[in-house]
Structure formats: structure tokens, C-alpha cells
Prior knowledge:
Chain A is of the alpha+beta class.
Amino acid sequence: MDALKILAEACADVRPAEPDDAPWAARFTAAPADAGEAAALLRAAADLGLAVVPRGGGTRLRWGAPPTRCDLLVDTRRMDRIVEHAAGDLVVTAEAGTPLAVLGAALAEHGQRLSLDGQPPGATVGGAVASGAAGPLRLLYGSPRDLVIGLTIVRADGAVARSGGKVVKNVAGYDLGRLFAGSSGTLGLIVSATFRLHPVPEARAFVSRTFAGPGEAHDAVQRVLHSPAYPAAVECSSAAGHRVDVLLEGVANGVPDRAAAVADLLGGGTVAAGPPSGWAELPAGGTLVHASVPPGSLRDLLAVPLPADAALAWSASGHARVVLPGGTAPGRVADALAALRALGSAVVRDAPPDVRDAVDVWGEIPGLALMRRVKDQFDPDHRLSPGRFAGGI
Amino acid sequence: MGTPLDRLAARFTALLGRDSVIDDPVRLRTYECDGLTTHRASPGLVVLPETAEDVAAVVRDCVAAGVPYVARGSGTGLSGGALPRTDGVLIVTARMRRILEIDIPNQRAVVEPGVINLDVTRAVRPYGYYFAPDPSSQQICSVGGNVAENSGGAHCLKYGFTAHHVLSCEVVTPDGEIVELGEGPGYDLLGVFVGAEGTLGITTKITVRLTRVPETVQTLLAAFTSIEAGGTAVSAIIGAGVVPAAIEMMDALSIEAAEAAVGCGYPEGAAAVLIVELDGPASEVAHQFAEVERLCRDAGAFEVRIAADDAERALIWTGRKSAFAAVGRISPAYLVQDGVIPRTALPRVLARIDALSAASGVRVANVFHAGDGNLHPLVLFDDAEEGAAERAEEVSGAILDLCVEHGGSITGEHGVGVDKARYMPRMFTDTDLDTMQMVRCGFDPAGLCNPGKVFPTPRLCGEVPGVKKGPHPLVAEGKAELF
Lengths: 393, 483
């Protein structure tokens, strides 16, 4: 009897991995039906000493470094139930494999939403939390770490643990939701998450204007941020010129006035009901860099020399996404990283192998020693997504 | 010479100067409790460092001597989170009170941990900004304490808690190293540090997010003849998609107390009052405020007062803000409870609290942040009466059980501290607590940083998770092999 049979005793849906399961080689793929099966599976994997890598919709498996070892890919997509939507409490609990689009549609029926955008099509609840990434709405609503109020995980040893709960205001115990947000499957397997929700705004408006120079765009953003406009998102993207887009959300009676005020602040912006093209999206392929750049450095960010066909999208929450097209020489990527790191931190999320090998993917990692010690506690044998994370964790 | 504490006193005196070390028993007693006065312990030694390097040196010496240490800001906490150890060192941040930087273009400020919460707002108000977390102690509580407790306040319904308003923290780790936890690559250690109640290290510098002062603020007071009607109004407001800055509720007993204490002049005959505050862009607020007023009347409000200006707004808030202290007017002693329930469970839970109160003969006044289901039942008793404190404690604990039973939490903002560590198993399994403590073991394997708080039973950090209980049964039976 081999490992596959042992795993099959824990989880009904287990098979040898296929090439399409992940962008790297794996031995087995298992799809647990619920937290109980997931726990049994991770216990079996612990007994067998298997390296375990979780996957959801598979939209961000190329983020971070490839795992140094992947014996067991845990596919969460069968765990796709919306466990409880307490509409009156503006709270929802969903299993990790629930696609965000499915969750969003269910919430919309009640006039509510999870205020997390910028997610790739097919992304799941678990993947969104594990990646920690957020789109333009981050300015007002934060990222998964701010929206998760409860989390259930399976530990490396197969034990099921919960933190937080299903009330927004709660300071009982450590908030593991914030620790697991962005932890890329290196601390445990997320099996379900509870989120705080917001009402879908009655009205929204996008106010846009393109500026010729970095300084003008910078000043325009500053004027909006220091005004009482209360924007839900302020984005600045660089392609042909520097375009500033401001999203306003609120009541139908109020949004038009605010939009007009923001248009004035931009020195003559255009107002539209729908998003401008490319809103909350980035071209795929090439090298994707996430950088932290606060609003006061926008001018400098826009002046960073990038290849002509690079795309840059900055969010007033202080987060920039830079895409350098495939084929950009590793040396030019390294130059761009150095320029971005002069302004804040910058991490290479995804890159062709030649680039990944040539550049410092993570940059400086303050607190790395502490991170390693936390990792050692949760996963002493380093079997959970080994090598995928910052500092080789 | 003498005990480890004597030796530390000598070292710290050499390091920080005589003025920064307190070992006189009378002066030590000043620090014997925080805002929760039912737990008291005179610290073995108090130090008043002025820099992060001082804090780090003190921590290193404590660790080398195996002496526990506790950080304290203004000492306003309500769960005994800063309760000292008689065998330990209390590190007081009161001399770290500088606002180091105000950075308006980046909407942030950098402050030392002893800076008073409201002083941040005072400093940035001229620029049109404020620091959003507003615990009711904000005139005296410290930002470092806010970080430890993940403090909220009446307005966190809309603006979130301290965790959402802290961008980075310089931290002295339990190793005595100084590290910056923030938005760099890697784990969100800042996210777990905030709200860890001082058990993961001591923050020595905090970068806080500043929030733009809203264009307008509108406040109303609605009076109801029953608490259920007030609850209905809350549900209707939230159900209508309105996100108020605050929704507060008081019941008849707490209104009576506030009236006796500050003469807030709330409508006569009110069994419940609701305070609803909206803020934001003027055009939006005007529209939503009218809707809120209508929803309150629809729910049966017999009087609605609208604050015409800041003075009237302050008057409306006076009763609410004085409620805790005011209860002293109608009862010789009381316990302040802090539990959370899903907002929709409000009527059911309040009825159960009423029943508890009736059955036990212990009076309970209810004050709460109704918008987020955060209850502050005030359990009244006469401390001169034999057994009364115990009965009050029992009712108070039973209220927490009600919260947990309805899917809520044993604390919404006061923290666990020493006070509620014993209640943690009512909300979390042993495995849950063990898992949380893995973080603690990562940060503080020696367990000297604010020990005895949050968790009912410390985890031995030498234990490795996933205790191997022998080989897999199939391996043992020879039916499988490992590779």
C-alpha cells in the first residue's frame, strides 16, 4: 500500500497530479469536500512527511517563488459552500474554494458586497486571503486583512483551529486572520473565512483626467486626498500620460455633487457612471511587481524610468502594481526594482524564470528572523508551501 | 547584592538614571492596577525609559535575569492587561510622549507610545485631519496602549479599530531587539502585534494613519418607550444601507444614572434612547439623516432631537459618555462588562439579560454600541453586602455566556487581559488557543513578556505542534512505507 492509498483513506478525491494542476511538478492532487476531510488529509500528509501546497482557483499560483517541493496539492475548489450569510449583520462565512464571483452574486441579491476588488477572474475566497491582495477599493475598505473577521484553518499537523468569529467588533485572542492574510499557504490551509460586508452603494461615479507630467498628476491627487470628497478609490495609471481616476460611492442625491467637486479639483475632469477601461485590471504576462509607495511619493514614482511598454497602476492606498512586458531584460527589471525600492518596498510577484533567477525578488525584509520563528511554530518541518514565501520561507 | 530585582534596580539606575527607576514601595503602589481596579499587584520595580534603546536594554536585562516584564501606557485599560507582576518590572512609557512627525502629504503621523490619543488629533486638526480611534478614555489613554488593545470607540462602526489606523510600529521584541513591523514583504506581523495586549513586545514608535475630518457631522437623539423599538430602529437603519459613524443605545436604568449624574435632560419616560451620528460629505449626510430620522419615527420614537450645532451635539453625547461613571450614583459598586453579539440578536439577548437580572435580583444597566452589537452591561451591586460581588460576577459571566451562545465575543474592545483569560475557553477550543500561542512562542519563547494575560494556560514553547504519536497505523502494520 502506498501513499496514495493512505491519502485516499483521508480524502475520497485524491489522484496522481496532472501537469495542468499547477505550474510546477506535484505528485498528488487531493480535493477535500469539507474541513473534516481537509484535516484528515493534512494529518495523513504529516504522517507521510509530504510537502503540501494549497490551491484555489489557480489564478495566482505563479506568485511568489515556486515551492521547493510539492508532494500534495490540496485543491480547495470542492469546499465551495456559502456557510452563512447573516444579511442583517452584514457578515458572511464562506468556504475557501468559493469563487469570489459566486459569493459576490449571492451577496448582491441582498444589496451587499465584499468590498474587495481587483481580483483575477476565477479567484476564490481562500486564494484572496492567502494572497492578501486588494484593488482600488483598498483606499476606503482595506485589504483582506481588514475585511476578514474570522478564519478557520487546518494546521500542518491536521488540527483545525479558528480565530476571530462572526462579529466585526472582537478583540478576544490573537487575530490570526491578519497573520494568515498574505501568508501564501505557508502557515496552514485556510478552509473558511468570515468577512464583514458593506451595502452596495446606491450610486457611483468615476471622475478622470489625464495629465501630461508627473508633477501635475501628483498635485491633483493631493488636492483630492485633502478635500472632503471621501473617495472610495483614487488611482493613477501611467501609459499615454498620467491618468488620474477617482471613484465616488454613495447615495444618488449626493454623488453627482461630489463628482462635480472632484472634477473641479482635477482642473476639469470628465465624469462617467462606469469604470474607465482597465480599471482594477492589469495586463497579464511579463513581470508583475507590487510596490509600496505612499501618496507623497507619487511624483517620484511616475518619474521612475520604465520600459516604454510597461504598465503602472498606483492606488492612493499607497500600493502600486507595475507590469514589465515579457522579454524585458533582467537587468532592466533589476533597475526598475532598485528605483522602486528607493521609494518603498517592492516585491516581484510573478516573473519569467530568467528574471526571477537574476533579481532579488523580495528586497529587504524587516522582521525576517521573527517571521522564521513564527513559521517554525506553525510548520516545524517546513512542509507547507516550502520556499514560496519571503526569505525562502 | 540581593534579589534579581535588586540587581536590576541597580543596573537600570546606572543605565537610565535615578529619576527613571522607582523601587520605593509607596510609589510602586501607584502602579498596582490599571482601569480595572479589582485586580491589583504592586510591581517589583518600575522603569520610565525615554528611548527605544532604553526599552531594549531593559528588556534584555529582564530576559537575562529571567524576570517578567509588563508595559504600561496611561493605565486606562479595563481588563487588567497592564496588571504588573510583583516579581517583575513595569515598563512605563509616560516619558515617551513626543509627536515625532506630522506628514500631511502622506496622511500619517509618527508618535511615541506614550502620546495621548487625543493629542494626536489636536496636533493634526489644524490640517483638517484627526486620528480616528476614539476610545472613551481618549483624553488620557496612550497610543501605545491603543496598539496593544486594538482600541475601538463609538465611531469604529464606520472607521474601524486601531489595527486599521496603524501603518507601522517600531517594536522592541522579547529578545530585546528593535524591529520595524509594517507593510514590507513577508508576514503581516504588525497585524497580529496590534491587539496582542502587550504579549508580543513593546512598541516604541508608531506610524498612524490620519483621517480627513468629514465635511459635516449630524447627530440625533431618538427616545423610545421600549428597548425593542430602539433595536428595531437600529436594524432598520443598517438594513437601509446607511453606515452611520456611530449608533449608541442606553436603557432606562443607565438613562436614570446619567440623568442623576450630569442632568443630560434626555426625554422623560424614555425606556431607551438611541444616539445616531452620521458624518461625511454634506450632500450625502443631509439625505441619509432625513432617512434615519424617518426610520426612528417609524420604529416608534416618541421624540427625536437633532443637534443644531457642536454644543448641542456635545449635550447629546454627555449622557452617553458619562454613563459608566454615572452608574456610581445609583449603585455603590458595579462591574462593567464588554461583550459582543450579532446586531440582529440584540432583542433576544436583551430579553435574556432582563430575565437573568430578574432571576438573580442583580440590577443590570445597559449601555451599548448598538451598531456593532457591542454591549456594555453595567452589573450593579452593593460591595458592603455579603456575597453581592460574587453574585454580580456570576451574572456578568452569564452575560458573556449569552454572547458566546449567540455567536458573539467575550470582548469587543476592553480586551482579555487577566480579567477574561478564564473565559477564553468558552469561545475557543484548546486547539484554537494553542494555535494562537504558537505566535506567542515565536515571539517570546521564554514567556516573560506580559505573562499571564490573554491565555488561561500558557503553552510550553518547547512543545512542537503535530506531536508524533508513533507511525501511521498502516505503516506500523507493514501495509505502507514512508519515503
